[in-house]
Write a sequence for this structure.
């Protein structure tokens, strides 16, 4: 269990419509924005998996650089899985203990005193397994954050992907906003996707450009302080 009083004043969970949609990129931008306006932050990645041959920084490395924390603090070393699969699948294939959701939650330890904003980034898409007994949606439900940021690609196929995420989120009483990553205002498809999702589907959607990210950063800071 997390230590009493350690929960951040505001908690943001970043999920995705799938893999490689830019969750970490978006998380880093948010952390940078919050720090730039003087907010104290912390980032957590309950589990991460990656290709053993990939020499680029891991998600925990990037999040830690943005939040000013060691990568081992962002994601506990036993939850680093050098195999590009969902974390519980990677753990099983590597012959390591397969995490349970309660274990991942207990390992999310926040700084004392509580920071202004805590960010949790999940692995894969919203319904991707995070543990043997839970996916990212289950993690969101357990954390009960102030805000969920659902990152989607701005291009072809995003309406279908966003609708699947919003259908899943319908059973969770948590405010959420969709952000279209890699948004290009000169791309007619990107613009049409944004218009359709906001006007036809009446969803809360922001473009993943500079103005959109700044607006999202402000919105997260304006969320009511969560109970500890």
């Amino acid at each position: 269990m997390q230590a009493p009083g350690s929960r951040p004043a505001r908690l943001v969970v970043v999920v995705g419509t799938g893999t490689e949609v830019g969750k970490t990129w978006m998380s880093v931008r948010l952390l940078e924005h919050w720090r730039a306006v003087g907010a104290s932050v912390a980032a957590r990645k309950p589990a991460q998996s990656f290709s053993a041959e990939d020499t680029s920084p891991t998600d925990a490395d990037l999040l830690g650089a943005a939040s000013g924390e060691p990568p081992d603090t962002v994601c506990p070393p036993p939850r680093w899985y050098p195999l590009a699969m969902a974390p519980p699948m990677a753990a099983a294939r590597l012959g390591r203990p397969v995490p349970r959701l309660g274990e991942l939650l207990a390992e999310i330890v926040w700084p004392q005193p509580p920071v202004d904003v805590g960010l949790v980034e999940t692995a894969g898409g919203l319904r991707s397994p995070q543990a043997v007994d839970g996916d990212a949606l289950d993690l969101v439900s357990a954390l009960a954050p102030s805000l969920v940021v659902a990152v989607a690609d701005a291009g072809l196929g995003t309406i279908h992907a966003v609708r699947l995420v919003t259908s899943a989120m319908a059973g969770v009483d948590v405010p959420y906003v969709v952000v279209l990553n890699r948004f290009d205002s000169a791309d007619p498809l990107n613009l049409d996707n944004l218009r359709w999702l906001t006007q036809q589907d009446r969803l809360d959607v922001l473009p993943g450009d500079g103005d959109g990210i700044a607006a999202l950063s402000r919105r997260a800071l304006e969320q009511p302080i969560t109970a500890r």
Q: What stands out?
A: The mean pLDDT is 94.
